[in-house]
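User: Can you help me understand a structure? I only have the sequence.
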Amino acid sequence: MAGVITSGAHPKALWPGMKAWFGRTYNEHSPEFPDLFDQDTSKKAYEESGLVTGFGLAPVKPQGGSVSYDTESQGFINRATHVAYALGFIVTYEEIRDNLYPVVGKRRAQALAFSMRQTKENVGANVYNRGFNSSYTFGDGKEILATDHPSKAGDWSNELSTAADMSETSIEDLLIQIMGATNDRGLKINLMGECLVVHRNDWFEANRILKSVLQNDTANNAINALKTTGVFPKGIKLNHYLTDTDAWFVRTNAPRGMICYDREIGEYEMDNDFDTKNAKSKKYERYSFTVDDPRALYGSAGA
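Assistant: Let's start by predicting it. Here is the structure, written out as tokens:
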């Protein structure tokens, strides 16, 4: 039958009878990993960032006594090693000779670009997806979100002590925790939430919680404090590549935290294979996603 692929038949043989092909590419989401990371570039195989502690509180100077002197000290080193990702496609010599290259080449190039973009989105989102997993650690030897990050002043936490689903109360609890943040010497720092990052299952609830005029889901005639105080100046960020349906995150204004390094921005390359005369096209990229200062991200794994 025309237009029907029977067992053993090659679909290319049926192209003249096909009205259209579908399934290779669709409308895409706008790039979402830039909401999860600050972007940077690199010219090396890896990048290292190091923690330097400042000074502690000033002690009382006794009358006639000497001034106390403090010293900076180096903390942990975080290394981001760039990883190469590559994919390609082939246009056969016979397709080229039959003048099909302009059609199939363009279509496959679009599909390749789609796959490469999706790859980068998934690699970036996986840093968040593994954020509570102790098998994936960074410079201080801990996962990104932990209750026991080490510091010179003692352990500190960037996750809720009791995991909770996203709600008005749990968001407030995490923001209060952020407000109490300290540096590695225990001095108070002006850490603030910038945006709320959610899985698609929490998208509508996040909007109800943050944008209701009055307090959400109550009969109280009370203001919505999360809305009136503008706690998330960069809003709510929906990420379609998060895998945990009830985990949620708050990115903060920590100056050096969630980083995406672009080592080599991909370009298409084409060449012909001598033996088959086929045309080969490929795209190669190299990049890494890392976390320098875990104070850049707070979150909860959900109940």
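Now, to help you interpret it: The longest helix spans residues 101-129. Residues 1-18 have pLDDT under 50 and may be disordered. Let me know which part you'd like to focus on.
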